[in-house]
Each structure stands twice: as C-alpha cells, then as structure tokens.
Design brief:
alpha/beta; TIM Barrel; 4-stranded antiparallel β-sheet; 22% strand; globular
C-alpha cells in the first residue's frame, strides 16, 4: 500500500484546528498527515479544580482554554518542587505545567481525533519545531528535549506512528563529539518515554544544511545506536546537502536500500521539488518546477515490498501530494497494461 500525505495543515483548510486538518486531508483522498507541533506555549499554574484527577482526565472549562497537562511538580520533604510526570493523581500544592497549543485542547480531544483518524485510515505522525539543538547543555537544549517529549505525549494519545524531528546544529569540525551528545540525549528521551509508558517511535529526518546534523550517514548512525529510532529520507534535502541532483532511479534505489532494513512493515519518507535560487542556493519548490523528478522515485517505490508513506513537504503541500499519487497510479496502470 502507498500512502500520500502532507506535512502541516492543508493550505485549503478553512478551519485551523486539528479536527479540520484530519477531515480535509481525508476528503482530498490523502491518507497520511504529519501534524505540526508548532506555536506552542507553556504555562505553570497551581492546581485547583484539577485536584483528585489524573492529567489525562482534566478537561478545559472554557472553549478557548487548553488543559493538556504535560508535567506535575510536587514539593518534597524539603519543600523543593520536583517533576513527577503525568501518571499520578493531582494533589493540593501541585504545580501544573500546561501546554497551550492551537490545534487541540485536551487529552480527551486528542484521543477522539486519534480514533477518527483510525476510522478514516489516516496515518498520523507529529513533527516538532524545525529548529532543534541536541548538542549543547543549556536551557535551549532542555527546551528542545521538552518539545520532543511533549510531542511524544501528543503522539501517544493520538495513536500516531511517532514523532518526526531534526537533530540540530553541530560543529562540522567536531561532528563525532556532537553526534555522541545527540545520541545520548535521544537515549534519555527514549528512556523517559518508556518510564511514562508511551507508545512512540522516533523518526529522525535528514537535513539539507551541512551545519545541521542529519546526513544520511548520521541519521543511520542514530537509528543504529538507539532502538525505536528510524531514519527518514527527505529527498530534496539530501540533494541540497550533497549538491548533487538525484537524477536517476539508481540514486533513489541506493538511498532507500540503506534505510529500508530499519523498517519492519512500512517505510516513511518526505518529498518535494528542489530548485536553484538566483543566489545559486537550493530551496524546496513545487514538484513540477523541481530539478529532481518524482517519476524516478515512483519507479523504485513499485519495487518496495512494504507499506510506503510519502509526505509532501512542498510549498504546494496537498496539491503535490495528490500529484505524486496520480503519477504513481499512472505508472501502475502502465505496468498492468503491459
């Protein structure tokens, strides 16, 4: 089976909630959605009406309120507040860390949306903010790790495949040391997800810039070192990073062969066009205008004996997802005709 989907809210959606995105993606004949975990704010408040409930039971009291509680802080015997996760009942004197997100407002809503997507056979993933730093030991790195963890909570409630993220900036002259730190931090995140009993996989995406970790070799390295992490081929970014256009079916075949072994029953990838700007810098483009041709990838997809998900990261999002599906269907019809 081939799944075509988009990364983000459909450009044609009139509503901006996650429910609208799921319904509109399905109605366009697409069956995969990479949900953007962007525009997120976090507030900390004292527990009040929530006392006696678990975080997953808490509902918003007003239409515009968000009650996705991502952490509980409880005072110890010395009065120092410490994180205890979200698997305990809320008590008096607890401090609640609440996620304010513009796409959904409670765990119950997320579970309902997950069931809707499942009934529509729409495969979901959650994508963290693009700017991630897993190599430093500062407040921003902690924030980035929280973004991945909070995305894991969202993914778990939705019943999604998992969380897609980039590896972050690093020093190309000391990539080995920085990659070691990245792997250590991802292991910490996986261990935290396991403690919280979250059913979530991590999908690490290839990067188009050399100052950002995420070459094909590097995402494979992470997937080899950490169980439950899968390399995601973003084809235009691979071409941009190497400066070499993927010009033949063999180019795609070689790349897919390197990552296919990490996937059991399905494989996940991203696609868009790629063009040179006036400044001779490569950038994402509509597929029809791009330097790399989807027809070459489509030829290779027909030989993959796994469910395959192709996510459009094109500026035209759903238009190009539908365009890719049409190209593949025509290729299938052509083969059947022969």
């Amino acid at each position: 089976m081939y799944r075509f989907g988009i990364s983000g809210i459909p450009l044609s959606s009139k509503g901006r909630m996650l429910k609208d995105a799921i319904e509109d993606t399905y109605e366009m004949g697409l069956n995969a959605l990479e949900i953007p975990f962007f525009k997120v704010n976090v507030v900390e408040v004292e527990a009040s009406d929530e006392v006696g409930l678990s975080p997953r039971e808490v509902l918003p009291s007003t239409r515009d309120e968000s009650k996705i509680i991502v952490d509980i802080f409880r005072p110890d015997e010395n009065g120092d507040y410490r994180s205890i996760g979200i698997n305990s009942k809320i008590e008096e004197n607890d401090i609640l860390r609440i996620l304010q997100w513009n796409l959904a407002r409670s765990y119950e809503e997320l579970r309902d949306l997950g069931r809707m997507a499942h009934e529509l056979d729409l495969r979901l993933t959650v994508h963290t903010p693009n700017y991630i730093d897993l190599t430093s030991e500062n407040e921003f790195t902690e924030k980035c790790m929280n973004y991945i963890y909070w995305s894991s909570l969202i993914s778990n409630e939705l019943g999604a495949l998992g969380v897609v993220f980039n590896l972050g900036l690093y020093n190309p002259n000391d990539s080995k040391g920085d990659m070691k730190k990245i792997i250590e931090n991802i292991k910490i995140l996986k261990e935290r997800a396991q403690r919280e009993k979250l059913n979530v996989n991590f999908y690490v995406e290839t990067s188009g810039k050399r100052q950002v970790a995420g070459s094909v070799d590097e995402v494979i390295q992470v997937s080899t070192k950490v169980k439950g992490v899968f390399p995601v081929l973003n084809f235009p970014k691979i071409a941009a990073r190497s400066g070499k256009i993927l010009s033949s079916t063999k180019d795609f075949e070689n790349l897919i062969a390197r990552v296919e072994k990490f996937y059991m029953d399905s494989i996940y990838m991203q696609y868009a066009g790629l063009e040179f700007s006036v400044e001779n810098v490569m950038r994402l483009a509509p597929i029809k205008k791009g330097e790399i041709k989807f027809e070459n990838l489509a030829e290779v997809l027909l030989e993959i004996d796994k469910e395959t998900t192709i996510i459009s990261v094109s500026p035209l999002l759903e238009h190009d997802a539908q365009y890719m599906r049409v190209i593949l269907e025509r290729l299938i019809e052509k083969r059947i005709g022969k």
